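Need tokens for this chain, all 158 residues.
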Amino acid sequence: MPLVPTPPVAPRGYSAVELARAAGVSTGTIKHWFAEGLMDKPAFHGRRTTYGREHLVRALAIKKLREHNLLLPEIKRKLAAIPLEELAKEVLPPEPPESAAPGAGERADTEELGRAWRRVELMPGLELHVRADAGAVVHRMAVEIREKYGCEREEGRR
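Here are the structure tokens for all 158 residues:
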């Protein structure tokens, strides 16, 4: 079942704190990964330094590989062999559909028109709704909630 989408990076990109939060790690961890050569450093602009989608994808991939107890040199070799878009498919939730019009029986207030919501089923009878334009931290939290509390659907139930 697809999880919530990660919104595109804002035109200005992520700050170091936003990148760390979106990846679910500390800023110190991000700095360490840069120092180890796991990610390319962006152009330095002091406090205005920004990080893009590539940095988020790589940070999420590194975190995922670290959760499988891989060491940083091994992670560096793996990342070098995998194209960015392939990594993105592994660590980012799928993009939302182009149009997300309300279905039969759904409330469609004028305020809500144009806002896409993603439904994440945690278990039969319990679901989580996340607005598609919510920030990356919110989307990451939804993924973590599903991973921690969600259960697999019973066979044959759809």
